[in-house]
Amino acid sequence: MSLISEGANFRGPIAAGAGLGLAEPSLASVGDYIALMKPRVMSLVVFTALVGLAVAPGSLHPLTGFTALLCIAVGAGAAGALNMWYDADIDAVMTRTARRPVPMGRVQPGEALAFGLTLASFAVVVLGLLVNVLAAALLAFTIFFYVVIYTMWLKRSTPQNIVIGGAAGAFPPMIGWAAVTGSLSLEPVVLFMIILFWTPPHFWALALYRTEDYARAGIPMMPVVAGDASTRRQILLYTLILVPLGIAPWPLGFAGALYGGTAVVTGAIMVALAWQVLRERRPAERASRHLFAFSILYLFLLFATLLVERGWGGLIARLAA
Amino acid sequence: MNEPDQDDGIVLTEAQKRARRSRSIAIALALAALVVLFYVMTLVKGPMVLIRPM
Asked: Greatest CA separation found in chain A?
């Protein structure tokens, strides 16, 4: 079943062609530019990167750690700005995004593009110069993945968009880890996998009660293309993969009993909520909203517990050094 | 005989001037912060600033 309307716009961004020139002097405020950086997404990115940085073995000067987090935050903001540049056409027709600076006309598409490219360049170069090259390379790849692979390619072309595109949001703990160690190992890969498999249940729960919005914009989200029932089954499937991954740091030995207990309890709640979503049928959307809201808390609790248990002592020691 | 063109270029409105000023201040602050960051990080790293491990 496809809910995408015949008139849906798949032709790409208004920004890519028509909007590069500045018709008149800009009225964009500093606040508009901050909004371009998607501060709420940025805060989650910074938090997960902080956890990667804090749980990594080895030492890092606190100021170097701060610089790494700053660069990761700015890099995430750059990716957000470039996403808003490219997606201005679909943002304009979706209720959730219609008030963003580019569709509202407060920031010209060309300004958003220049802003994003400038921030991305600075973030990667500064991270490479002041921290290490691996972390900078990972940050550059993350921005590329989010903007080119997800935004420009997958988002408009496949219902698997957020399954694959979720990798972009999963990289920050790896960047944080790489900033400390200059290398990668199993632990950051497990953190990466947790966020990767958390993304589909999280975004599909949202898409279930925003289906018309996505359909109107012509975005082939899973409920739009595969339908309601299939999406609900896949949410449960991905949740069943996510929960053992969430618990994995405990048996793998880089998290303790507090983390294990938290992961088991919150994982059980995730499965229960996903089960409720499976049993729910449109137009009811309560279970989907509950799962969407709890999924944010779930990820936060997992990483916060890991931070308290593994990273807090390390952070204190680094600050005292 | 035609009058010469009286082209004053683009004249900004007050709102546009205010927006430009706030953006200029934000850019200046960001650049100053970057200078301070490089300065302090150079002090922190000392001679190691020239060694950049993978």
From this structure: 62
